[in-house]
Design a protein that fits this description.
A hairpin with a 7-residue loop joins strand 10 and strand 11. The strands form three sheets. Strands 3-2-6-1-7 form a five-stranded parallel β-sheet, with helices on both faces. By secondary structure, it is an alpha/beta fold. It contains eight helices and twelve strands. It folds into two domains: about 110 residues, Tetrapyrrole methylase, N-terminal domain (Cobalt-precorrin-4 Transmethylase, domain 1, 3-Layer(aba) Sandwich), CATH 3.40.1010.10; about 130 residues, Methyltransferase, Cobalt-precorrin-4 Transmethylase, Domain 2. The longest helix is centred in the first third of the chain and has 14 residues.
């Protein structure tokens, strides 16, 4: 019986992979990876390592989560070292908790290897600090994947009316609803907002505007997924701190 490493692959750029994650990738007998993990990471695997893709996109799941859990269990019975490679961090909307609980219930040893979360790294690569003295002393990370106006929504929209920085992950397809709900609960329509597509990669693109106009600007720019949304006054700091995209220009 083997061990499963629930491993964060980071936000995309290969060099943002942690040293520990790189070590377990190189030692793995099988790597079960998702869509947001940089495929170049797989090149670090040893000869004979097996690769299994279980990626998810909106409306397109290679395997439902329940079956992914079972895959991890079956391969842990077969192999010594199983790496579950996830984009970002396993515990930031990465379903790592569900997979760990499933393995624990079946007596399978597992280890969590945190990854650099896109929630802070992608804004940083767009020149947007999530906190800044005199501008924002706190930030909130919220799922953007949940339909914001459904009755069973777990998002506490009223609490997002303050001036803290809010980062929505996986929210591109819900951007219009996110914008409308934030304005509805009292967020100023002129609040700066940025949408960052394919952050930390050579294809990174950023659209900036007010909360009121951001949806139309993003539609016009035709930004692809994955994308992250940042709402707050810290977006204005991009004018001075936009180091990555200027370097690529």
């Amino acid at each position: 019986m083997g061990k499963v490493y629930l491993t964060g692959a980071g936000p995309g750029e290969l060099e943002l992979l942690t040293l520990k994650a790189l070590r377990v990738v190189r030692e793995a007998d099988v790597i079960i990876y998702d869509r947001l993990a940089n495929p170049d990471i797989l090149k670090e695997a040893k000869d004979g390592c097996e690769f299994i893709y279980v990626g998810k996109e909106d409306g397109k799941h290679i395997l439902p989560q329940e079956e992914i859990n079972e895959v991890l269990y079956r391969y842990a019975l077969k192999y010594h070292s199983v790496v579950r490679l996830k984009g970002g961090d396993p515990f930031v909307f990465g379903r790592g908790g569900e997979e760990g609980k499933y393995l624990k219930e079946r007596g399978i040893a597992f280890e969590i290897i945190p990854g650099v979360s896109s929630a802070i790294s992608v804004p940083a690569y767009a020149g947007i600090p999530v906190t800044h003295r005199g501008v924002s002393v706190s930030f909130r990370v919220v799922t953007g994947h949940e339909t914001p106006n459904k009755e069973s929504s777990q998002v506490d929209w009223d609490s997002l009316s303050t001036n803290e920085t809010v980062i929505f992950l996986m929210g591109l397809h819900n951007l219009e609803n996110i914008r409308n709900n934030l304005i509805r609960v009292g967020r100023d329509a002129d609040t700066p907002c940025a949408v960052i597509s394919r952050g930390t990669s050579s294809e990174q693109r950023t659209v900036v505007g007010t909360l009121q106009e951001i949806y139309e600007k993003v539609q016009e720019a035709k930004l692809p997924t994955p994308a992250l949304i940042v709402v707050g006054e810290v977006v204005n700091l991009r004018e001075d701190l936009n180091w990555f995209e200027e370097k690529m220009a």
